[in-house]
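Page 37, top half.
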Amino acid sequence: MRFINFELIFQTLPKLLDGAKLSLLISLFSVVLGVSLGIIVATGRLSKFWTFKAFASAYVAFIRGTPMIVQIFLVYFGLAEFGLTLPAFASGIVALSLNSGAYMGEVFRGGIQSIDIGQTQAGLSLGLSPFQVFTHIVFPQAFRRVIPSMGNEMVTLTKDSSLVNFIGIAELTYRATLIASRTYEYYAMYIGIAIVYFAITFTLSQLLSWLERRMGPYDSVSQSGKGLRR
């Protein structure tokens, strides 16, 4: 029976954490851009303009129908074919953001569609513009409802950030693989990767759970009946 070399994991932990910092930085930028893009995609999918809706739908279908690693390669190597060469770090963020934007778009679309159409009609009858109804009535409620799904996507994106090691970014997985290639302790280093990623995602999950309790749909206003009727 092969024992896990925890001593090696402990010795290399500072290097693994340095790689984890880069992974978290990539994930942070990608989540922010992905959420922003997701809102645009959701409005496009719900738009009455055929071209906008068709483009958003095609984008979501392509992203959901292709592996993320292929998308990373398309951004990093594909854009270079057209004369646009991005650094590996920027390419990783762009690829992860594009991937996240499609899934976040579907999350937000579901949240927006879950809001009773009567609230929109009530807002319009009060003289609000469609944009005001969306920003002040529909979207705030939809955002609260999609926090759990949005949190799941954030955790998934954080784990998937390990794929950027294939384009040479020295994040957690890349550094652990280099150490394993020198020590031949592949199993120990993969256990080290799992431990660090588990610590990151567990902490993120707890923060998202706290946010869900604070901003979830069943807040004090809605429970007291003072909010808009669902």
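Page 37, bottom half:
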Amino acid sequence: MNAPTTITSRDNPLLKRLRVLAQDNAAYRKQGQVWLEGDHLCRALLARGHRPVTAVFSETFWRQAPHDLRDAADHIVTVPDALMAGISGLESPAGVGFVWELPKATALQSGAPAVVLDRLQDAGNVGSILRSAAAMGFAQVLALKGTAALWSPKVLRAGMGAHFGLHLVEGLSVDDLAGLSVPLLVTSSHQGDFLHQARLSWPCAWVLGHEGQGVSPALEALATQKVRIAQPGGEESLNVAAAAAICLHASAAGR
């Protein structure tokens, strides 16, 4: 284990960069790095065999930090608790955070099961869908332009580590999906086959649309199958993250 570097100045360049990563949803696109805050996200990264470039500890947490976190990076930094709180985007600041280099941008994977996000706006919904996708065996999540930033701090927290087990591609257009080479299944609240009666293809790509507007007409026109979820309780529609979990589980169970 390398000896930690102690930083005590709020104006230190590293701390300035971390504050931007923690508070600016699009900063990762410019810096090529993400800030992973808290024990759960840090351990999720390590569990997938990844290694951060820098591990940052509050002085209090460093004194009691377990060895796997202490040994996680070659570059280790400790900061006073007050400075750690100044970086944090959480109500209760964590004692540890990692800086991780993002994978180089790559194209979508042809033939792989996928989840397509069509202009979803809510970070909590996007993160929750990533968790469901990873849990149900979908290899990739593809975000069309207008979707909440996949590596933003709020989506990262809502994803709870699912990011590290998925192939993620952002900024796509409808035309880019032609490279998927799998059937597109489109969710709808008022038309199509009922999910519990439908025969679902595998592999496939589930398309989940904007919280208010639903799937765009251009994507609907490409759909191999339209699917709706029976709602005997009489509600008009389901939250998109809840609908995603139900649909993805149906695909996983029917494989």
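Margin note: The mean pLDDT is 93.
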